[in-house]
Amino acid sequence: MSIVSNKANKKNQIYLFGIIILFVLLAFIKSNLSINLIKTDEFIEADRANDLKSRKTSGFWGPNEVSYIHINNNWTDARNNLPWVQGGDGSWDNPFYIENVTIDASDSPTGSGILIENSIVYFRIENCTIYNSDYGEEYAGIQLRNTYNSKIIDNIVNDNNYRGIALSNCYNNTILGNIANDNFFNGIFLGSCYNNNISNNYANYNKEHSGIFLWGCNNNTISGNNANSNVHNGIFLQFSNYNNVSGNTANYNQHAGIVLGNSNYNNIIGNVLINNELGIEEIDLCIGNIIRNNIIHDREDNGDDDDDGNDTIENETLFVILIIFIIISLICGGFSIIIGRKSENLDDEPKLDSSELEKEKVIEEEYILCDLCGEKIKKGSEKCSYCGSLLLGISDDD
Where are the domains of the chain? Predict the structure, then answer.
């Protein structure tokens, strides 16, 4: 009985040790997630501090020289008359360009810092700093309307009174590496635009809406952007279809990291969405959107913006479920052993191992039973030591 009991105890100790190890691992994972979130928060704050440094001088032409730029299908005239408009003939390999200009657009007659309209030639706007454009849907630091074939690269469009960069009815444009922070409404806006590439931009801390907002836009690529700490959403697609939204970071937005409203057949893949109220939200009627491989860590909102609570990471969900299943299996396995041992002990007849059984067999062979009282008597005895009856005709050979 003691041998079997010791074995059962050892098994139970092994199960208990395994359960303790698994709980320690889960605590370690949770701790690492919290540390990573703290680091992410620190990185975002560091980026914000860098962005809010004094504006860099964009080159030869400052705000005292240029209060606005307006091109309305007159690139050649502008190049010939404005020293800050340069370039060739507007072909793909010899585009027009505007670069190294700083504009305070508070006195702009167009309401925007740079306004390009009705343009189909190739041009580039690069390394410009624009702020204080006017309030209203038609205004932005850089505003493009009915424009094709542009590249908007490495500009700073912060602190505008409505939008940083805005495109309306535009096709085949590239918005790359710009900083569009602390604007009143959106950092980057596209309305009724097709086949544009919006990549590696910063659209953070915008005050009244989303960092990047697409309305009625199809077949655009939104990739590698940072849209963090906006008052509403990081990236918002409304009435927009067949767009690719991938590899973006949208953290610490007050509502959602990415929102799809009446938007269909978009690919939302590989984005990092941490500490938003919601990671990804589909509103109104949305069909056919592919949403996968995103890292989502929603905050639990208890009236404040604390980043702790019952958070989840999509890619680790299956792992956590597996751990829970293992723990339950181990617990149930331990119980079954204990219950099994209790049922074995009910008859008070412990099972003997092979050596004990062999010894018992030898003892049985050395004794016979008395016919009168039924007690065991050693073979060769002439009378029973219990009842005194004679054992006639009994010998060692029987």
Answer: 1-53+320-351, 69-319, 364-398
